[in-house]
Each structure stands twice: as structure tokens, then as C-alpha cells.
Design brief:
Elements: E1 8-15, H1 22-31, E2 51-59, E3 65-73, H2 80-84, E4 92-98, H3 102-106, H4 108-119, E5 125-131, H5 143-152, E6 156-160, H6 168-185, E7 197-199
Parallel strand pairs: 1-3, 1-4, 4-5, 5-6
Antiparallel strand pairs: 1-7, 2-3
Bound molecules: guanosine-5'-triphosphate.
GO cellular component, one term: membrane
GO molecular function: G protein activity; GTP binding; metal ion binding
EC number: 3.6.5.2
């Protein structure tokens, strides 16, 4: 398991309206793991039911190797009570909208609010993602207004496309690095009863890390 070479595990969730492309983005990212299979064509991506799990190891530019545990959630309202129960135990959130769907952009503040209400302020690090950047001719959210929203909510903004494989790694790298920095500053702390960040002992055999591990402040 990749955790053999990883010192930390960050749990990250993708949130956003139905059909904005969360599953396609995540599958494209996971397919970038050396040796991984190409993802199914996105046209075959069926709507997510509840929550699905993925993982990928990542070497941060400045810091240790990280295991990302990635949770893909259903955007449809009828699954909201299931997906909501996962918000508390994440350290990173990709807030995804479809740049050809204005409503999905307008709903970003609601998604942000939902997580903040569940977690309390300063627990999670967010990244705003404008997805389907290959569809420039039908775009209806400008980069400038997305940047403004991201700034007002205290997060960075990245435009991605699963179809073109544009900025997919950049989005996850940016979020993971922002989490590392927040840990280093002490803005986010490792807590025994919180699954957002876990310390993984180098010698640990594969399997879920103990809930009792608390290595103190992050040294990354
Ligand atoms: N043009 C374009 N289409 C995309 C892209 N990513 C996803 N799609 C399409 O968008 C539709 C929805 O994609 P999904 O990945 O299932 O969206 P989702 O947000 O996971 O949907 P839910 O599971 O219902 O919440 C599919 O038809 C995809 O083919 C992209 O980068 N560019």
C-alpha cells in the first residue's frame, strides 16, 4: 500500500451540484497514479450514489509523501443526508462547479456554508474548482468572478478539465500543499478523534491507522 512510504494521510472530499464533473475529475486524478488504468470515458460516468472512495499517494514539493484519501459525493439533493455525515472528518474540500452551468456556481456558497456549519470555522482547507474548462464557447462564469468568489471565501481557484486532463494534478497538489502549510502553521492540529489528518508510522503494516496516534505538531 502506498502508505508504506507516506507519513500523513489527508482526507479530502469533493462537493458540488449534480453532474458538475466531480467523479470524472477524481477518476482522472487517480488514473494519473503511475501504473494506474486510464479512466472510463466520462460519458460512462453514472451519477454517484451516496459516497465513493478513492486514494492516491502524492509527493509534495516541500514536505513528505502524503496519502490522499478521496471521497466522491453525490451532488443530488436526495443523498444530502448521507454526504453531510462525512463533512466533519475531512481536512480538505474541493468545491466544484461547472463553468457552463451558472446555477452550480451560485450554489458554491451554500456548499461552503454546509461544511462550515458542520465543522466549525478553520477546520477544513477549501479549493474552488471551475470544471469543464474545455467548453470555453459555452462558458457562463468568468475567471474573474470565480477568482473574486474564491478570494471572498478565503480560498484559491483553479480551472480544470477531465476531458483535456487540464490542471487536474494542479488542483489536488494546490489543496494538499495548502493543508500542509496550515498544519505547519498550527492552524490545523492533529486530534485523536478526528479523521481529517492521520499520522502514518513508516514501519506500519497496511491497515487502518490507530485512532490513538498523536505525534504532536506536524514536522512537514
Ligand atoms: N466537456 C466536459 N464534460 C465533462 C467533464 N467532466 C465531466 N464531464 C461530463 O459531465 C457529466 C457529469 O459528470 P460526472 O463526473 O458524473 O459528474 P458528478 O458531479 O460526479 O455527478 P453526480 O455524481 O451526479 O454528483 C458527464 O456527462 C461527463 O461526461 C469535462 O472536463 N469536460
Amino acid at each position: 500500500m502506498e502508505a508504506g512510504g507516506c507519513r500523513y494521510q489527508f482526507r479530502i472530499v469533493l462537493l458540488g451540484d449534480a453532474a458538475v464533473g466531480k467523479t470524472s475529475l477524481l477518476r482522472r486524478y487517480v488514473a494519473g497514479t503511475p501504473g494506474a488504468r486510464e479512466p472510463e470515458p466520462e460519458s460512462e460516468a453514472a451519477p454517484t450514489v451516496g459516497v465513493e472512495f478513492y486514494s492516491r499517494a502524492l509527493q509534495l514539493r516541500a514536505g513528505p509523501r502524503i496519502k490522499l484519501q478521496l471521497w466522491d459525493t453525490a451532488g443530488h439533493e436526495r443523498f444530502r443526508c448521507i454526504t453531510r455525515s462525512f463533512y466533519r472528518n475531512v481536512v480538505g474540500v474541493l468545491l466544484v462547479f461547472d463553468m457552463t452551468n451558472r446555477k452550480s456556481f451560485e450554489h458554491i456558497q451554500d456548499w461552503h456554508q454546509e461544511v462550515m456549519a458542520t465543522q466549525g470555522p478553520d477546520k477544513a482547507v477549501f479549493l474552488l474548482v471551475g470544471h469543464k474548462s474545455d467548453l470555453q464557447s459555452t462558458r457562463c462564469v468568468s475567471a474573474q468572478e470565480a477568482e473574486e468568489l474564491a478570494t471572498s471565501l478565503g480560498m484559491a481557484f483553479v480551472e480544470t478539465s477531465a476531458r483535456n486532463n487540464s490542471n487536474v494534478d494542479l488542483a489536488f497538489d494546490t489543496l494538499a500543499d495548502a493543508i500542509r502549510q496550515a498544519l505547519q502553521r498550527g492552524d490545523i492540529k492533529l486530534e485523536e478523534d478526528w479523521g481529517g489528518v492521520r499520522f502514518i508510522h513508516k514501519t506500519q503494516s497496511p491497515g487502518p491507522p490507530s485512532r490513538k496516534q498523536n505525534p504532536g505538531p506536524c514536522q512537514c
